[in-house]
Amino acid sequence: MKPVVVLDKIIETADRLFYEQGYNLTGINQIIEEAGISKPSLYNHFKSKNDLLLAYLDQLYTKWFDGLDAYSKDFDAPLDKLIAFFDYRINRQIATGYKGCPWNKIINEVPSEQFEIFERASKFKADLKARITHLVKQLNRSKDKPLNDEDLVEVIFSECESGVLMARITKSHTYLEKAKDRVLKLV
C-alpha cells in the first residue's frame, strides 16, 4: 500500500468537500483542517484555491473516465457499452446520494470569466459526447431510422444530462432509467 502523501490528502479532501458542499462554501482553512495538513503544505502545492480547483477538475476528469472504462470493460457490443454508459451514470448518482454532476455544480458556482474552469468543463462534456458518437457509429444502424447518427448522439447526450439533473432534483434515478429506455427504442 502506498503511503498517503500530502498532495493526495489535499486533492481527496477538496474532491469530497467541493462535491458535497460546493466550491464557494468550502474554505481553504476547512480543507487544511480536514486534510490534517499545515497551511504551508497546502501552499507548497497550490498558490490559490482556484489552482486547487483546477487540479481537482483534472483529477475528476481522469477519475470519471477511468471509472466508466472500468465499468464497461466487460462489454464488447456497442449497444451493451451504450447501456453501460447509462448504468454507470445511474450507479454514480445512487452512490453519491443523488448529488448531481460535479461539472455542472462547479460551473454554476464560478464566474464566467474563469475561462480555465469552463474550458475544462467544456472538454469533459465534449469528450463525453465523443464517446457517445463513437458508440453510435459502431452500431451500424440502418438508414431508415427516424434519427440519423448525429441526431441520435444529441438525443442520447441530452437525455443523459437531463436525467442526471432530474436525479439530483428528485433524488431518484427514475429519469435516467426512462432516458435509457427511450434511447434503446431509438437505436
From TrEMBL:
Presence of keyword Repressor: no
DNA-binding region(s), chain positions: 27-46
Keyword match Transcription: yes
Gene3D superfamilies linked: Tetracycline Repressor, domain 2
Keywords: DNA-binding, Transcription, Transcription regulation
A GO term, aspect molecular function: DNA binding
Cross-referenced InterPro entries: Homeodomain-like_sf, HTH_TetR, Tet_transcr_reg_TetR-rel_C_sf
HTH tetR-type domain sequence ranges: 4-64
Top-level lineage group: Bacteria
Protein name: HTH tetR-type domain-containing protein
Species this chain originates from: Niastella yeongjuensis
Lineage: Bacteria, Pseudomonadati, Bacteroidota, Chitinophagia, Chitinophagales
